[in-house]
Automatic annotation (TrEMBL):
InterPro entries to which the protein is assigned, alphabetical: Ig-like_dom_sf, Ig-like_fold
Coiled-coil zones: none
Organism: Tegillarca granosa
Gene3D superfamilies: Immunoglobulins
Name of this chain's protein: Ig-like domain-containing protein
Keyword match Transmembrane: yes
SUPFAM superfamilies reported in the protein's UniProt record: Apolipoprotein A-I (SSF58113), Immunoglobulin (SSF48726)
Keywords: Membrane, Transmembrane, Transmembrane helix
Transmembrane stretches, start-end: 59-87
Source taxon at top rank: Eukaryota
Length: 273
């Protein structure tokens, strides 16, 4: 685009306008668009020339070549004829003038041929320079794009590693919270169990004291009845049996920790067990 601005223009709607098409214009064209965020998108389009008109071009080139050769031949023939006629029909002075004219024509022809050669060489040099410049720009663009792709891949890898670290930290934090919560719940259960066990022990000792007092009152009442009846033998037997029964039933040294005893528990305390 920079080297062919006089015949290639990008219009406002984004299309490419070529004033006159050459054979060197065929090939791949790449359109690249970059937004303000730095995202680059490209589209490659291949331009192919219509090969159906090539036979006509060849025919026209052949005809033009034949016309040029015929004109050169006619010019040479006219030159030869004029030279021959000048030599034979005109005097020496005219012959010298004609020779001078012929020499001038030869010089002009050689000058024009030299200019044509120089123009051809200059055009060829421009084409070579343009080709080398485009190749160099393509290489620079390729290197730049490869560097950008590499930097983008490195940024993506860093972002992925950062996300993985964040997920790991979040997982460890949640796991620590879960462990703390479970240990707290276990401690609360232990405290509740110890409190319920203390309440059960207190309730058992209270019921045991009440039963003992009640039994003593019944025993005294029975003893009073036996005293009024004057039954000494029965009283002795009854005392021994009561003492034995009391020693068997009401034992103070019982173990509450191993669970070897069973006490009647009212319904209002069953919710704590």
């Amino acid at each position: 685009m920079e080297s062919w601005r006089e015949r290639m223009v990008v219009l406002q709607d984004g299309s490419l306008y070529i004033d006159y098409v050459l054979r060197m214009d065929s090939g791949p064209y790449t359109c690249k668009v970059e937004d303000p965020l730095g995202n680059v998108s490209s589209l490659e389009i291949t331009l192919r020339l219509d090969q159906d008109i090539l036979p006509e071009v060849k025919i026209m080139s052949v005809l033009v070549g034949l016309g040029c050769s015929a004109s050169f031949f006619m010019l040479n023939l006219i030159h030869v004829v004029i030279t021959y006629l000048a030599v034979r029909c005109i005097n020496q002075r005219r012959r010298e003038a004609i020779l001078q004219i012929i020499e001038n024509l030869d010089n002009y022809r050689s000058t024009q041929l030299g200019r044509l050669k120089e123009n051809y060489n200059s055009q060829l040099a421009k084409i070579r320079d343009t080709y080398h410049n485009r190749v160099a720009k393509l290489r620079e663009n390729y290197v730049h794009q490869r560097a950008r792709f590499r930097s983008g891949a490195s940024h993506i890898r860093e972002g992925a590693s950062h996300k993985v670290d964040t997920i790991k930290d979040n997982y460890n934090y949640q796991l620590g919270k879960l462990r703390d919560y479970s240990s707290h719940q276990v401690e609360q259960l232990r405290d509740r169990y110890n409190n319920q066990l203390v309440k059960i022990r207190e309730y058992g000792s209270m019921q045991l004291g009440r039963a003992r007092e009640k039994y003593k009152l019944q025993q005294q009442h029975v003893l009073k009845i036996l005293e009024t009846m004057n039954l000494d033998n029965c009283r002795t037997v009854f005392d021994t049996e009561c003492v034995r029964t009391e020693s068997m039933l009401f034992v103070d040294d019982f173990n509450c920790g191993n669970g070897s005893y069973k006490l009647p528990i009212p319904d209002r305390f069953s919710q704590y067990i």
